[in-house]
Amino acid sequence: MLPKWLIIGHCARQGWRTVDLLRPDVVYQLSLRLGASYEATSRTLERYKLINQSQREDLLKIKPRVLKADLLRDYRPADYKGDVWLLTERDQAGHIDGSRNDLFVVRLEERSASGYLWNFDQLEATGFALLRDMRESDDLEGIGSPVVRRVTAAPEDGPTGRLELQECRPWQTDASIAKLGLDFDLSGPEEIGLSRAERRQMLEAA
């Protein structure tokens, strides 16, 4: 059983409010961080009265495959067996328990008008392959306003490690203005569709 304090902790870290728990994409990302299935997370939210029965039923009408495809946008993997993580600055100093089938969408605000760029060479050096790299703007009218860098990546090398990204000027790599660093363990079982964290919880409950 997932403790309520853990759910509240992840919501606080990500800036999710109670009303956000009505959004399937938010509940899916919450489930990944809890190491539980989307359905189990939805039912747990109802159990703790963070949502009601009708809202839980609405959540379960949406299948995780749809949420994965929406997050990946125009990228189409060979299959959707793995999970798709959305990582932002709020995941700084966090930890990921997943599998080698998982994909990652890294979405970070970038102050490129001031010469600051996220160095995704560091992502490749950590053992990830870059599948997509694009920029989008939240303010198309604003000149010099920050843009959002959106990178889709897949693990290639070792199952465990640490991801370190920095936003800096290319000529001042020792003076970053933002960082994203987190540990990851992608050694979770792939063949049964459970993450490493989910299997650990099952063993602890036995």
Feature tags:
206 residues; alpha/beta; four-stranded mixed beta sheet; 31% helix
Describe the structure.
With 206 residues, this protein is of the alpha/beta class. The protein has seven helices and eight strands. It has a four-stranded mixed β-sheet with strand order 1-3-6-5. The protein has a four-stranded mixed β-sheet with strand order 2-8-7-4, with no helix packed on it. The longest helix has 11 residues. It is globular.
Q: What's the arrangement of secondary structure elements?
A:
Blueprint: H1 4-14, H2 24-34, H3 38-47, H4 53-60, H5 64-72, E1 84-87, E2 95-97, E3 103-110, E4 117-118, H6 121-125, E5 128-137, E6 147-155, E7 160-168, E8 178-185, H7 196-205
Parallel strand pairs: 1-3, 2-8
Antiparallel strand pairs: 3-6, 4-7, 5-6, 7-8
Helix pairs in contact: 2-3, 3-4
Order of secondary-structure elements:
HHHHHEEEEHEEEEH
Secondary structure tally, helices = 7
Overall pLDDT:
89
Q: Numbering strands along the chain, what is their spatial order in the largest sheet?
A: 1-3-6-5
Our estimate of the beta-strand percent is: 25-35%
Helix content: 25-40%
General shape:
globular
Structural class, by secondary structure, is: alpha/beta
The overall strand count is 8
Largest sheet: 4 strands, mixed
